[in-house]
Design brief:
heterotrimer; A alpha+beta; B alpha+beta; C alpha/beta; A: alpha+beta; Phosphoribosyl-aminoimidazole Synthetase, Chain A, domain 2; seven-stranded mixed β-sheet; 33% helix; C: alpha/beta; Rossmann fold; nine-stranded mixed β-sheet; 6 helices; 11 strands
Amino acid sequence: MKATTNCKTIEILNLSDKQLTNLSARNVLSLSLVEMKAVQDYFRKLNRNPTDVEIETIAQTWSEHCKHKTLTGIIKYTEKKGTKKTKRTYNNLLKETVFKATVELNKKWCLSVFKDNAGIIEFDAKNGVAFKVETHNHPSALEPYGGSATGIGGVIRDILGVGLGAKPLANTDVFCFGNPETKDSQVPEGMHHPKRIAKGVVSGVRDYGNRMGIPTVNGAVYFDEGYMANPLVYCGTMGIIPKSKINKKVNSGDLILVVGGRTGRDGIHGATFSSMHLGKESDVSAVQIGNPIVEKKVLDTMLKARDLNLYRAVTDCGAGGLSSAIGELGEKTGALVYLDAVPLKYDGLVPWEIWISEAQERMVFAVPPKNKKRIVELFNKGNVEAVFVGEFTKDKKLTLKYDGDIVASMDMFFLHEGIPKPIRPAVYKIKEENVQKPIKMNSASLLKALKDALADLNVCSKEWIIRQYDHEVQGQTIVKPLQGNSIEVSGPGDAAVIFPYTVVKGTKKGIVLSNGLNPQYGKINTYKMAANAIEESLRNAVAVGANIEKMSVLDNFCWGNPNKPEILGSLVRAANACYDMSKAFGIPFISGKDSLHNEYSIDGEKYSIPPALLISAMGVIENAVNTVTMPLKNEGNKIFVLGITRNELGCSVLAKIKNVKGGVVPEVYPKESKEIMKRIYKAINSKLVESCHDCSEGGLAVAISEMAFAGDKGVKIDIDVIKTKGELTVAEILFSESNGRFVVEVNPENKFKFKDIFKDCIFAEIGCVREDKNVAFESVKNKVEVKEKSENLLNAWRNTITW
Amino acid sequence: MFEIEIFTKEGFKDSRGEHVLSEISGLEIKEITKVDYAPVYIIDADINKTEAKTIASELLIDKITEKFEISSNSGSRKSKNSVIEVLYKKGVTDTVSESVIKAIKDLGITKEVKVKAGHKYYLHGNISKTALDKIAIKLLANTLVQEYKIK
Amino acid sequence: MKKVKALILKTAGINCDYETQTAFELCGAAADVVHVNSLVEKKDKIFEYDILAFPGGFSYGDDIASGKILANEIKNKLGDKVKKFSLSGKPVIGICNGFQVLVKMGLLPDPELFEQISTLSYNDSDKFECRWTYLKTEKKVRNESSCIWTKNLPDVITLPVAHGEGKFISVNDKLLEELNKNNQIVFRYSTKDGKIPKYPLTPNGSVEQIAGICNTKGNVFGLMPHPERHVLALQHPAREGFDGEHGWGKIIFQNAVDFVK
């Protein structure tokens, strides 16, 4: 070990606490004092100072992004309800909530959970399907186009890097942006306008996803001013993998092959940067620009290499670059890497930069020496660069060499297990919720509210985004994000279904993807927010024909600064909801990710984002041909509402547009909901359902209107027969956002069979599909008639976002 | 060094230019009446003007809808309109330039070539430097990864 | 009987190769996806095939302009072979990016001339558009098209488009007249009942709503819509198609396979 011109020794042995803290800040290490002291202890034992390569390696490996140290750390939690206090200590929050539920559910069809780059469930006897959702928030705030493009590029590589590599079949994306109508003068200095961020992010996902030839089939956009300076960009990818390729194993003596893009100075400190707050002075080198064509070439050739069994393990270079990828693969063996062998974009990179650069489109393989020549030839034939940079050893050490000198030498155990567990306090105060004063509205104001609800930013058509994505490439998107009975009309699909007939020849099965996200509820109660997100994702999937017994979910927490006890407390509540709902619905979590420290500063003042939990659901459908869509199909068919409508308008769309104070946030009743979901699957597979739509933001009024205009049909609804819990006003019935409800269209011939399936559930026949193309809601009891041409409602829904 | 600019021919729609114009009006800048968009390629290689012309006419333009202008050093072309030029900063991955280099080889030009790809926007109308800066910063360039020049 | 063999040409950024291969296979052909590099190595391999397909995607990222770099590469490295293949009367198809490649290297509309005389330019909306469209099919003698690919189709079919540069423009009006006269304009965007549509039913602003053209012989065919994405009724938004199971796109591939037989 020696310092060279390229590699400096960092004085650490004799630093005081204060100096350690300064060192961490100065070098953008994002390590706490406790962590810095652990590093100091380790090198005191070795009786030498670390090199810059070593200290950077530790910072990467121990970063929030790579290690999830907050959620795996110790949390002392206090919950307050009125004057009552309850306390609990978590030694590892995720293991004791999300992961615990999966272990307890113990589903045989979960093939790989929480251990690889993505979760995998069974597709059929020979194949599994993998799903992963990632976030790329901070880079997208600074460079929306490059940030989101590398976000989608990164999650695609997660799928390429799961097991021995899966073939990507679909992408999903979910965004939270600030209000696009924000005045220019209200945008903080140094930040981009929310509309510019939105447009840039959409273009980035579009250009990367489209060029990769992976359809973006499902998503959501949520606007709230709390995301103005810190947007959320969730990107997901689903892929298919032969069961025989799910496990990877690195042997000592295997060679380390780096494949794909070259290494440059791009994205240095991306992993540590993601745990810092955003401000005017944010680090510029953290931004990367992607090259989808390089990644596409890697994808095309690596799957060939996989099928020829040319390698034993693979992982992607994500946050932390080679440092993370090789560090992970070599955790059990040890690794020796020649940093000067890594192909560079340009000269001038010093060893630590090469080692932690987050340059895009790179994958790392463990190759048995006998396949050395063949694998490189194969990649080169596809115009992909592939270079050996070292080998996996058996000394359980990480050794890095540059120009013949050893520039780093550390124990793998210290790197991966040496991080001290932080202890953080967390508190949560449960807010009281009360039913609002009765909302009384006449026919005219109800109609106006309906149009306003349809035009609301969080309800309105996202066609402007969806049509820029090639959501049909690969020809397997059989339930599409926009659904219409004819080409001229459309409505919002609840979930997407992929029918992978080009990959699994002769298959009848489909894969359903959906999501749930309700940050508005989190402002009152994060437990309810999480529960709502889970139920919504499941309801969306069930509405197109998913089997509730074969669904799995992913969690993605985007939260503010966890060093603030209230913020961490709200996360603990949400994690508990995940456990409770997972158990109650019998739906395992198969993978997840968290992005904490979503905090930004304006004029020196720090703000955290409204917490957001994205639940992404995936399931396997036995008979893809039986899936249904949401547009109404035929005149004369009957309309049913399944489930009960409660007075739940807290944080609802109606509350927002009518400025209603108070109200109860919708509660989830898993037992009730699951029973309905099971029976819908039965009804759909007995071909008794013509169309089905989940009921969420904007309630029954919005759901039924969407079905009508997407079908280019009319509908007449009798409000008085809708089943409610207690006495509700017409406005409350139409706009309440209670969970567990579906609107279903049934052919009159099948009415009795359909009703038979739902006996002992709460449901009602509430109207029928009509020729006149008017949407009409009537209550004789209250002398209310809300009536409008479905075309006009379609236009109200369509015309908000036309950038 | 050759700078090749690609223009839409008279009579054809410059969709990008029109789009930028509508976005400028969204910034509440009313003085601009028209925007011409021109992709620009700066080619740094030991080639003669004939070769540069071949690259432009065979590769960089669409023969039906576009024409090119070529100058032997960057920025020498005069325009009566305000021009904003946007290029990636040094060290930022420029994927277009990589593709162009490959395509020049396919044309049979085997000399070593360096390419920078960028964008030029010709803004018609009387407009202040401050407004131009605003258009560049708010709309056309992200100064984190790109640099812009106003001419 | 010998199986009909289709060559699907692939390069960096091509991404509709799988589904195009599946479409040919569904019609009883054997289809190989061949990288342009391998074909350049063994150029005459092309003549082992009965059908040549340029699938959709973003060849070389569609940098410079859609299909441009691949068109340039093929013309310079494989031009004479591709021309010979086309003039031999064997079926050639270019879908979306493939159509852009055919037009930009000049294989369409006139493979004998082999010069670019038309183009596919930026959509009028200046946006990528992924949506389903109605296509009016050209009919000629005995109510049939001269294009071997588009026989046996009804007057109006539906297929999806997904492109940012699909606006067909011809070099001059004379060419447009000729294309019309020779019945080379085989697909036009239309309304449900075959009338002239407005945006978004005409997704890109093509002159005369042109969506697909062929050469005078009818063997070389290019189109912006994706027939390979509608070989099954299940792929249609309202699950429409023919025979209860298949989509209109299948007829297009079947035509070429049957023609070779």
